[in-house]
Write a structure and sequence with these properties.
Helix 1 packs antiparallel against helix 2 and helix 7 runs antiparallel to helix 8. The strands form two sheets. Strands 1, 2, 3, 4, 5, 6, 7, 12 and 13 form a nine-stranded mixed β-sheet that branches. About 6% of the residues have low confidence. It contains eight helices and 14 strands. The protein is an alpha+beta fold. The chain has one domain: Glutamine Phosphoribosylpyrophosphate, subunit 1, domain 1 (4-Layer Sandwich), CATH 3.60.20.30. The longest helix is centred in the N-terminal third of the chain and has 21 residues. The protein is globular, with a radius of gyration of 18 Å.
């Protein structure tokens, strides 16, 4: 099949208040650009948006720098519980898993559920599905995340969430750099427009960290991951804020109803900012417009616009609530 249009791609690795002490801007940029390059090569080779999104999410889940899959944060009881969702914009179909444990790539379960009658499963159902699919048991816990949880337990969980990006900068030995001044939060996400004009979005997360047992994030809801044939969005940030705004679905519906993607994101983020929400989002429309928005200080996103790779890592508050290309 011949490609009809130029594919486009945008990914994110979360949001937060600082890149200091989180592997640094250079290391995060290297990770995001590497993944964008690999996924975009698939799109150029004729792979579908949905398959490319799943592949990109798996790469992000496998990178312990990010809070999804390997490197996920721990809930208050010291357990890793992950959630993920996939939405095929071409057929407007959503699937996902909530609070799943002992799997390497939650997005793979969401992908399988695309063809099932029951398309969103919670913890026990997700584990049973993994068993039926004979997916090997896997422990996503890293030493850094365990130490982070132990330190917070000693302080009776004073933080409301963990850092979004694992501390992988070996040159940073200052223990204070791991503290609240570098707080972060979020998910990983991938949004793609393939060469056939089809859109898809995928989102995966380890949660906030230190939350109540069984807390459900936005990532496996249309509030945090949504797509139609007109637009697709993946969100990051504080899940409760994203749910309250129903952010992903709101943006996509506004585009579907006739707004341009930049207009839809601008209006949605102006509303979110007025409501004092803390969140971010990446998006694509069927015309190939790449867009993103944030009310947080930092959005860890990178994209391929068909000509080259760019990112939002040095995009600060003074740049406004949204960006696009």
């Amino acid at each position: 099949m011949t490609l009809n249009i130029q594919p486009k791609l945008i990914i994110h690795g979360g949001a937060g208040s600082s890149l200091q002490g989180k592997g640094g801007l250079i290391k995060v940029r290297e990770s995001l650009h590497r993944i964008v390059s690999e996924v975009y090569t698939l799109l150029l080779a004729g792979e579908t948006a949905k398959t490319s999104v799943v592949h990109g999410c798996k790469l992000l889940e496998d990178d312990p720098r990010f809070n999804a899959g390997t490197g996920s944060v721990l809930q208050s009881d010291g357990q890793v519980r992950m959630s993920a969702a996939l939405m095929d914009g071409d057929i407007q179909r959503f699937s996902g898993v909530i609070n799943v444990s002992r799997v390497k790539n939650p997005i793979e379960l969401a992908q399988f559920l695309q063809v099932c009658a029951d398309r969103v499963l919670s913890d026990f159902g997700s584990l049973e599905l993994a068993r039926q699919l004979q997916i090997p048991s896997y422990d996503p816990l890293t030493d850094i995340r365990l130490q982070e949880w132990i330190e917070e337990r000693q302080g009776n969980f004073q933080k409301t969430m963990a850092g979004v990006v694992s501390e992988l900068n070996e040159t940073n030995t200052d223990p204070e750099s791991h503290r609240e001044d570098n707080a972060g939060y979020g998910t990983i996400g991938v949004v793609a427009l393939d060469g056939y004009g089809k859109l898809a979005a995928g989102t995966s997360t380890g949660g906030k960290g230190f939350e109540k047992i069984g807390r459900v994030s936005d990532s496996a809801m249309p509030a945090g991951n949504y797509a139609t044939c007109r637009a697709a969005v993946s969100c990051t940030g504080i899940g409760e804020d994203i749910i309250d705004e129903c952010l992903a679905a709101k943006i996509v519906i506004r585009v579907t109803d006739g707004m341009s993607l930049p207009q839809a994101i601008q209006r949605s983020f102006t509303e979110a900012d007025k409501n004092q929400r803390d969140l971010g989002a990446i998006a694509l429309d069927d015309q190939g417009t790449i867009a993103w928005g944030k009310t947080s200080q930092v959005l860890l996103a990178a994209y391929h616009n068909g000509d080259n790779i760019g990112d939002t890592l040095e995009w600060h508050d003074s740049s406004g609530l949204i960006g696009y290309c």
